[in-house]
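Async update (no meeting this week)

Hi team, since we skipped the sync, here's where things stand on the single-chain job. The sequence we agreed to prioritize is pasted below, unchanged from the tracker. I ran it this morning and attached the output directly underneath so nobody has to dig for it. Comments welcome in thread, and please keep replies under the output.
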Amino acid sequence: MVRPKLALAALLFILPVSGIEIAAQTSSATIKDSALWEMDLKTLGYPACPSESSSKNPGAPPTTLAFAGPLHLVATFISCGRLYATVFDASVGRVEVKRDWASGNRSDGAVTAHNEGIVIRAGNRLTLYATTLEPLKDKDLDSSSSRPAYGGPFGRFTSLTGRFVLFESVRDNRHEYAWMDADTLEFVHAFSSDLHPLSISETEVLGWKRTTPHGQVQLVIQKQDEQAGRVIMLSKYHPNDVVFVNQDIFAMGTAYSAMALLQTDGTRIETIKAPGHDFISRVTPSADGHRFALTGSTVRNVLELSSPYQQWEYVQRVLVYDICMRQFIRDVRVSHSTRNQEFPLALSPDGSRLAFFDGDTLKIYDVPAAGNPCP
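Output:
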């Protein structure tokens, strides 16, 4: 009974991108579930207190993962009103250093990691730390002298390498943005725009721009210092799962179990399809732009077919796709399924290691080397 329903769901949700027919791709994913190492996070004070459960308090996830270079992995989480940060040796799982601070903000935690540096938010204060968690630089986002054309609670978008962060705020019903250099904690550009970002590269913003008062939108890519950008022509299907995977390519969800890779001029490169019938999302690229991880989930009962985006977000597996090899090269099952927005996931800068939380356990996996390296 399940197989025909899945086929029907796929047929209903598959739509063309710029008139291109979506076709399935044969993948040769490496399915091997043995982790390089695991860490029971309960020994470090995880999980959060029951009163802080994310199921009861919607919002930004309280747990983050980021690679600070190839050798260090930092995990941050909130528990009982405190923000915890732990830096691991990414090769063997040894805890190198850990710290904790008082926290009253649900979205406190690691903002980005770049070049052996880690930027952590605690309230409206950003601090750049070394991998020893020694503070190097500090910025108060409440200070008018430190935030040109910026204010209020914010969202954030991190660039491919982690060097830049775009902060978003709303002031007097206007969306305002501040582009920050993570190495210096200095704002390099601030602007107001009707563009609603989905992802940023090192130099550009990718997002939706409203074209009519009735809600019609266009997908636009624009430079950080431009008010107008180039429009990417799409069909009527407007997904929110659109992410830069390198400076020249972005990935876009197109269907029930398919995702398109497109050049930044809108030209389709290929369409990838997950093994089996998984719904794929949450693209997480490596800093070198050669690979990206994604999450996959499956239909668990017939009721989910009528409201797919309510239920398919429970993560069942994590995959890694190699852009140059054009195939999945890692496929790892997740034992303790959680919602996508609450699922910490990271890929090392060179794409050689994958890390995620599986319930209360931090797991890290080796990813096979590329057979045909990118030029």
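Quick observations from my side:
The CA atoms of residues 262 and 268 lie 4 Å apart.
The longest strand covers residues 72-79.
Reply here if anything looks off.
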